[in-house]
Write a structure and sequence with these properties.
The chain has 62 residues and is mainly alpha-helical. It is 68% helix and 0% strand.
Length: 62
């Protein structure tokens, strides 16, 4: 039961943090449209893969 309560509070915290971010960035006008924009920004931020370059420092001494 404690786990369910903790997950509920975590979900509530994340939802309220998202709502605060939308209100702080865009204001109170047209909240739904601005929330869609912010969710798209989050999806773009966490959806793309990280490209790693090969380490070139080992080739300098040869």
């Amino acid at each position: 039961m404690g786990l369910i309560r903790s997950l509920f509070w975590l979900a509530l915290f994340l939802a309220m943090t998202f709502a605060f971010t939308v209100l702080f960035e865009h204001g109170t006008s047209d909240f739904v449209s601005n929330a869609k924009k912010e969710s798209q920004i989050l999806q773009d931020l966490y959806g793309k893969k990280v490209e790693r370059k090969k380490d070139e420092t080992d080739k300098l001494g040869r």
